[in-house]
Amino acid sequence: MKPTILSYVAFLLVLIFATQSIPPTTGADNFVYDVKGNKVSNDAPYSIGPVIWAKGGGIKLTDTKNTKKMCPLYVVQDPAEVNKGDQFTFTLIGKQKYLLTSRILSIGSCNMSTYWQINDPEAKAPSNLVTTGGYFDTAATCFQVVDYPKPTSPKMHSYMLQYCPWMCGAGPRSCFNISSYEDKGVRYLASSGTPFEFVFQKAK
Ligand SMILES: *[C@@H]1O[C@H](CO)[C@@H](O)[C@H](O)[C@H]1NC(C)=O
Ligand SMILES: *[C@@H]1O[C@H](CO)[C@@H](O)[C@H](O)[C@H]1NC(C)=O
Q1: Probe ligand 1: pick from 47, 73, 75, 111, max atoms within 8 Å of CB?
Q2: Which residue stretches of 21-154 are H helix?
Q3: pTM of the model
């Protein structure tokens, strides 16, 4: 039988259906775990800090430029290992009970209705530093939690953050590793450098 236009169209249709039946994601959803091995809840207060606390304390907000303004505040690592830092909420876009890796979310400060953001991830500091002042579920506040590629401790679940504005509809198709950037003794979180490895600790 000679291939007709019709059979060619039919073949194309089969091809389209076959392509569409491939699931959009690979693998199962991965839960995020805290230092005690419990699942991290979505939209609940946690402090985050380094795996080895001797490397400094937890993440907190600070007005390092001493502008006396409340916003925006910089997201930094407390220099003292005894300090757990502030509490933050990791809120997935879309209702979930538990936090999942590789899903877009916004990171809020418990007693402020603003979210972590980056002004310009491709610029140099201070424009690429993480600050507060963003709005929920926008490109400026579009982060995700991912497993840390080479964990410091095999016994602990450690993670890093990525900033992915394109996943929320803006900018080039790439993610930025959230990293520690030191300036005048202050360790800021920024969009470039060595990824900041951290663990979750549930708020008391
Ligand atoms: C929340 O408020 C308390 C008391 O007002 C303050 O000590 C704490 O630093 C605030 N947390 C943040 C993340 O701003
Ligand atoms: C982000 O970090 C991972 C793990 O260290 C690395 O493989 C990757 O190249 C980094 N991406 C960028 C854009 O720096």
Answers
A1: 111
A2: none
A3: 0.80
